[in-house]
Amino acid sequence: MRILLACKEMIAFERAAIMALSSTLKRDGHEVKAVVIKSAEPLTSMKMVKDKVGKEGLENPDGVFKIVSNFQPQVIGYSVMTGEHYDILDLNRRLKNSFNFISVMGGPHPTFNNQVIEEDGIDAICTGEGDNSFPEFIRRIESGEDYWLTETFHTKHNQKIYRNPLGKLISDLNELPFPDRQVLYDADPNLANIGNKSFITARGCPFKCTYCFNNQYNGNYKGLGQILRTRSPELVIEEIERVKDDFPLDNVTFNDDIFILRPNGWIKKFAKLYKRKIGLPFNITARPSVVKKEDIKTLKDCGLTYVWLGIECGDEEIANKVFMRTTSNETILKVAKWFHENNVKIIALNIMGLPVDNPFEVDLRTIDLNLKIKPALFSCGLLYPFPGTAIAKIAIESGHFTEDDNTVYLESNKHSSMLTFKSEKEKMMVENAQKLGGIVVEFPFLRPFVRFLCSLPLTNFYHLLFYIHLGYCHKIRLNPPKIRNITKELPVFWSYFRTLLRKT
């Protein structure tokens, strides 16, 4: 069968779901193509979303229509995050008016918003892990079987909606084929030219952070398999070797929920193989509560250059009560010191604009903790109470959020807050703190002036500074391009930067 996989553009980021699904579908003999959808006007405010309903939202819809017309897919599968679904639903409805195909929506949005199956033009949704269920769905369509009864799928058939239970989680990730990067690079050649590429070595996270979908996801899959699953070091290394042979590769990103949480002996075996066969700088994710000093030394020795470290909030009481972080600031500072001692740079992951009585004061304490951590990059987004997260319930109960049919979600948490605050001034100060936080941590002498700076109505200007600083840290400080690739990478990142500027 001919299957088109579609997703919205993500800045310098590879869609793992597209690559994974394409590889399993091709393994079964299907013809697969991908398309990356771009918005003409990124959705950066609630008003824009509301005003956009019923209007043209895509940058080049003719390009998408041309691909569909030439390829004539029998199935179109959309990988969708909440906030992206407005454009996807609009595009799908217009495609349905011109072409005959079965539309499938997968990803976080339909997983936690399964009522999207009721939307006009959507034939099926995948509500969980799709590596086995999606190929099975396709197999049933091809063979004329009852595809509407496929596990993990909610499906329309004969004007009836079939809501099927989840299938079991894949127990052995080693059985999966390597992700099909070429299908995504054909759709977006810019991704192929970027020297930093991402890999996944494991799935699942056992922690219950309220802002994360994993909490609800794990609950959905209770009794259906082990949540935390890890690929063998040998297969991870083999995949990286293949990518290194076929595409530009200067830096490796391990895009796991928590890379450093591994079975006994895994890290040592991985480090030995990586140092001998790959030898490139790499970065990982880590949660302070599970970091071991000896693991940092081991990983540094084989190429670790920086770590994405979950800080979340500088107010320890709020962090543990609202986020269920269950980690002390003392532990965070201790772990940060270990990374510094091993010359490993830190990207500190933070969240501002919390559903509490004094959000701006809490944000100031987050800045203060980061000043002590001294990260190479203070990375910060505004809290979004996405469906399926415990924080959404907390925000509703505290009166900071209302979730109903009129609720709209943005594609990025870097623009404006979804929460309700005591006043527009408080909202502005929270949003400004999020945009200025990285600048203040970079230049500590600005700390005494933060309250004043955040009180100024300069949010758009601060947003511009935010992206300039973010781009500098990522492309110069953390992932500098190799001389041989600079002619390829700089035009790509200039294009991405212009896209980001449109969002200010």
Q: What does this protein look like?
A:
The protein has 504 residues and is of the alpha/beta class. The protein folds into two domains: 2-163, Cobalamin-binding domain (Rossmann fold, 3-Layer(aba) Sandwich); 194-459, Aldolase class I (TIM Barrel). The chain is built from 20 helices and 15 strands. The strands form three sheets. A seven-stranded mixed sheet has the order 2-1-3-4-5-6-7, with helices on both faces. It has a six-stranded parallel sheet with strand order 8-11-12-13-14-15. A two-stranded antiparallel sheet has the order 9-10. Strand 6 and strand 7 (160-163) form a beta hairpin. 44% of the residues are buried.
Q: Kindly report the average pLDDT value.
A: 90
Helix content: 40-55%
Major β-sheet strand ordering: 2-1-3-4-5-6-7
CATH third-level topology of the largest domain: TIM Barrel
What's the main sheet like?
A: 7 strands, mixed
DSSP strand tally: 15
Short description:
The chain has 504 residues and is an alpha/beta fold.
What is the secondary structure topology, with strand pairs?
Blueprint: E1 2-8, H1 16-27, E2 31-37, H2 46-52, H3 61-71, E3 75-79, H4 85-96, E4 102-106, H5 108-112, E5 124-126, H6 133-143, E6 153-157, E7 160-163, H7 181-187, H8 189-193, E8 196-199, E9 202-203, H9 214-220, E10 229-230, H10 233-246, E11 251-254, H11 266-277, E12 282-286, H12 293-301, E13 304-312, H13 316-322, H14 329-341, E14 345-352, H15 359-373, E15 377-382, H16 390-397, H17 424-442, H18 450-454, H19 459-478, H20 486-501
Helix pairs in contact: 10-11, 11-12, 15-17, 17-19
